[in-house]
Design brief:
- This protein has 718 residues and is α+β, with helices and mostly antiparallel strands.
- Among the domains are: 97-233, Rossmann fold, CATH 3.40.50; 517-625, Dna Ligase, domain 1 (2-Layer Sandwich).
- An eight-stranded mixed beta sheet has the order 19-14-13-22-23-34-33-30, sandwiched between helices.
- The longest helix has 31 residues, at 220-250.
- The radius of gyration is 26 Å and the shape is globular.
Length: 718
Amino acid sequence: MQPFKRSWVPTSPGRGQPRPTWRLGIDIGGTFTDFVFIDTRTGKIHTEKRLTTADDPARSVFEGINTLLEATGATVADISTFVHGTTLAINAVIERKGARTGLLTTMGFSDTIELGRETRYDLYDLKLRFPVPLVGRQLRKEVKERIGPRGDVLTPIDPDDVLEHTRALVEQDRIESLAVCFLHSYLNPEHERAAKQAIARTFPDLPVSISSEVTPSVREYERTSTVVVNAYVQPVVAGYLGRIESWLATRGLRGSFLLMTSSGGTISSATARALPVRLLESGPVAGMQMASLLASLRSDRNVLAFDMGGTTSKGYVVVAGEAEKTYQWEIARVHEFKVGSGLPIQSPAMKLVEIGSGGGSIAAIDRRGVLQVGPRSSGASPGPACYGSGGVAPTITDANVLLGFLGAESFLGGRMRLQTERAAGAIDEALGKPLGLGTLEAAWGIHEMANEDISRAFRIHAAERGIDVGGFTMIAFGGAGPLHAVRVAQKLRMRRVVVPLRAGVFSALGLLTAPIAFDVASTRRTYVSALTTEEIARHFTPLEDVAMQFVLKTGLPRGQVKISRELEVRYFGQGHEVVVKLPRRAGVTPEMIASLFHKAYQRTYQTTIKLDYELEVMNWRVELVGPNPRIELRQEQHESGDPVAKGTRLAHFNGPGRGVRAMVFDRSQLHVGQTVSGPAIVEEVESSLVIPPGHAAVVDPWLNLVIDLDQASGQHGV
């Protein structure tokens, strides 16, 4: 690999001081924290993987940084850019460990967050459950104020009324954070701003989130839910970031500290403190973005990125080289695959699917007496039984070590010995004996159930977009992704699996390829036919000004920012919009918008019918993006000769009782052009690739391991 090419420097070193030359990416997962440390002078990459310290995630971050600094001789002052991805925000919501949060609403609207859209996500479930609101009924207060549907003031706000309710929430209910969401504030934020100012004067230490700053867009329920989530995680995120920044500052950091967002860009820590809702999918998105970059490099146009870590698996589809974003999504669903069963979020994000199947996912017998894997996870502590850290429940990792897919002596490069006897005991006790199965039979059941759950989730996700991933290329990464990649790809009838170098820390590497970016949207309803070219430009100007302020906080020069504009358009009377991407050139006309809408509508709904209705613009959206910090993967020279195995291991590729001796290879010893034929296992410090019998992996010019399934025997066996 060659060095990153930086096109800008966030800070200038003092006179006589050398310029910082290291870039650091850290991705905190539910089980492991991953580190990538790159010397931009030489291109040398150092990696680290540590168990996440769940009680205090910052501790594993500090320990990992210290280990890298000791190994390289660098200091914190040598770091030019530190990019961080974290699951801290979303885990706080899922585990209900956020701040005690209050909510101020317009008189008569305190139950919006609980009523939702009054729709049933499953018509035939007579015991339908919805997620419990993050703010209980007693912590919601109604304020006497009213903005009309055109943005006009119907009832002026009374600051004393706001303070009376806030005082009760703070002094009697002991809230730690406050959300404010008034009716139609996306059109006129005057009342929300007045409330925030009044509260700041009287309660300066109380974090306050207002919807007109978090998500100034139409739809009351989604807007309320989003600002509540922002307020709920704000103290948690602010406290964590404060500790990280303090630690870095005392050690002389002169570079920039950036956070990855759910939409694939990076923002300053100040922005992350104010808008932590933007960090919900912070970690997973980095890997997906890196997969898109790798796909482009390899000229793979249709790709399914598959990331399997210790807690979850994620999937992301790229079609014809185009990645897709979403602006309405859900978290903490009651039912994993049922849209409408979670907490709605109105914020930009890459459109991915997530399922509770990771290496630490717990296998158990459900109430029907059937094997179930996940979504509960053993996490980093106590972890899988084979870790020997106190875990007693069987997990996917326990199954994989018993099946021979993981080496007990070589896990994490030999730094962590897995205890197979504990894995066997946990599986026997929880599954084998109750189900009348042998140890390997139960282990195989766990492994296959995970593969089936993951492939089903990906199949549903693709089908919802009108896509069949059969014939696509899978890019597999994460600590457990390469272990399951071939089997999952077979079930989805994909044609190829690509496993990149350093797959186990791929997301941390992806953090260092993300550009600085910020997205702002606002609702302004109008007919397309009523617009003029001048009005279109005028509507976007204030949004660009707001977004630019957030981008400039990172230190990025204004001249290096590119602006993208989008509209959310629908036929008048429809309930959902289609995103229309506008050309970057000036002079956009209504006719151009209509033409782009019909093309986008056809792609979305697979129909060529044009309805005889007016087109209505709902939301105006801009995204400001800086230059991509590039990583150039050098094409290595082809080397002749067969790879040399470091040993063999009994592995069960086709079920219990059918174990075969698999060749075990050290990935660092493989060269371009070499072929590894299955049955084989290729071990890397951070992950392992399983190559079943009848398949072969070839090392491509960028050191990826490529398995062409359509050229293998038993290509679609399940």
